[in-house]
Specification:
It contains two helices and nine strands; from the N terminus they run αββββββββαβ. It has an eight-stranded antiparallel β-barrel. The longest helix has 32 residues.
Length: 214
């Protein structure tokens, strides 16, 4: 009798435990089978700072000159199409502040608003190539000097490269280099003999990217 009872008890235990174990295994397999989120996914927000070297020329100049290195920064946000591509919008600015010979404060700027894309050739690496296009404005403001024009609005395009290194679950630090180009031609209507203004800023810097989630 005891042997029979033990047999039935063992059989009941097997009948109870096997489906439970199978269900747990299925759940576990289900969790594993779901593709893990990539290092790059969802919305993102970036802040960058660097040393920007500004130079310019006109159509009458054979090459760029008048180079000057000052702070350059940008703020950008967007989304991730897939682990190989991020798209977004960016405001990129170069600023030079100084006091002229007359004692007035002068602020020179080149600011661009661009739509950008970052392409990651290798999914497992943080290396990316960057490009973008939009509008830009080159201007100089003199504090209390009574001079300084409204600036020139033109076409902007940008290209560069960088490498995303993961700091934490949602943060990346990114050494980068970029070149923003500006073109404007306000003299076309006024007969300015200098022609089109070509201005560019080459920036070497670093950015911090926050990726909040899917």
């Amino acid at each position: 009798m005891k042997t029979t009872m033990r047999f039935f008890a063992s059989a009941i235990a097997v009948l109870v435990l096997v489906p439970t174990t199978s269900a747990l295994a299925q759940r576990r397999r289900g969790l594993v089978d779901v593709s893990p989120s990539s290092e790059r996914h969802g919305a993102w927000l970036s802040f960058g700072l660097g040393a920007g070297t500004d130079s310019y020329r006109y159509d009458t100049d054979p090459s760029y000159g008048h180079s000057l290195t000052k702070p350059s920064f940008f703020i950008a946000a967007g989304g991730t199409v897939n682990p190989h591509l991020r798209l977004g919008g960016e405001i990129n600015a170069w600023v030079n502040e100084y006091t002229d010979d007359s004692g007035y404060g002068v602020t020179e700027t080149l600011v661009g608003g661009l739509l950008t894309g970052q392409v990651y050739p290798v999914k497992q690496l943080g290396l990316f190539l960057k490009g973008g296009a939009g509008i830009s404005r080159s201007a100089a403001y003199v504090s209390g000097g009574g001079y300084g024009g409204p600036g020139e609005t033109g076409f902007a395009y940008l290209y560069g490269a960088g490498y995303e290194a993961k700091l934490g679950r949602n943060f990346f630090i990114t050494p980068m280099v970029s070149v923003m180009n500006h073109r404007s031609d306000p003299g076309r209507r006024s007969g300015d003999p200098l022609g089109t203004l070509h201005e560019r800023v080459v920036t070497v810097g670093v950015s911090l990217t926050f990726q909040p989630g899917r």
